[in-house]
Amino acid sequence: MLKQFNQWLQDSVFKPLEDKKMPVMEHLVEFQVRLTRAVLVTGVVFVGTFMYADTLVKWLRVPLQNMFVPSALSWEPTDLPTVPFVFLAPAEALWQNVKVAGLFAIVLAAPYILYEIWRFVVPGLHAQERRFVGPFACISAAAFYTGVGFSFFFVLPFALNFLISYGVNAGFVPQISIAQYVGFALWFLLVFGLIFEVPLALTMMAKLGWVDAPFLIQYWKWALLGSFIIAAILTPTPDPFNQSLMAIPMFLLYWVGIFGAKFFGKKPAAENAGAAVPAVAMPPAGGGPMARPKSSESEYVGVPTSGGRR
To answer: Hey, where are the domains in the chain?
Structure first.
């Protein structure tokens, strides 16, 4: 009975899913192998980042009481008082080191993870798709790192300085839980890394023909409203200052995506159809039969006959 069920499962479920190149089970085995490699490499990188977790946490604390000066390419201390960090649970400090080390391990191992994903999907892509997906993955990774750097050097210092200064001016003594601070900082870095993917996502949608530049320009007001709504949901604090810090770059990146859609988007079907339709010869004005164009005998190819005559 079990053998018959396995045979039915193979014939009715798995066999229709198989392609001519590789069966479904081989796809799953390859996916398992590549996923295992990615996890092992990430785990090895995590061991290295965990050894330097204290140093990473110290670097994560830099935007709290310093401002980055682009002209001097250095950090300058702010007027904030020294903010001590406390932990409210026995394992809180250890868990934050694990969290920071894990996130940095994933970020550092991201190129290899993308490489394994690329090797898994490339056999099923056409030549033109391979030329498109490869640069897309590289640009996507570069955009994510750019967003993380922009958040670390510019957004986090302004946000933290505003929030801490507001509390100090209100007469409160700043004491921050290490878990709250690490969660706040890592969430900002992650969200801004994803926000910088907006132009690339819009360009890809235009490349596939889902949207175009005029459509995106027509709905720019809704994009502005959506940017503030998304920022209100994603920001760790409900204050309008941090909401604006996230919404304004998101809206500006929306316009960058419009330019990308304009230059790299799919051409309208009317243009392609106009270019592909051949010219049709018109009959003469007198309504007589259409004249056959004259051509030399060397250009005419007749139907071959058994006798060899034309």
So the answer is: 19-152+173-194, 197-268
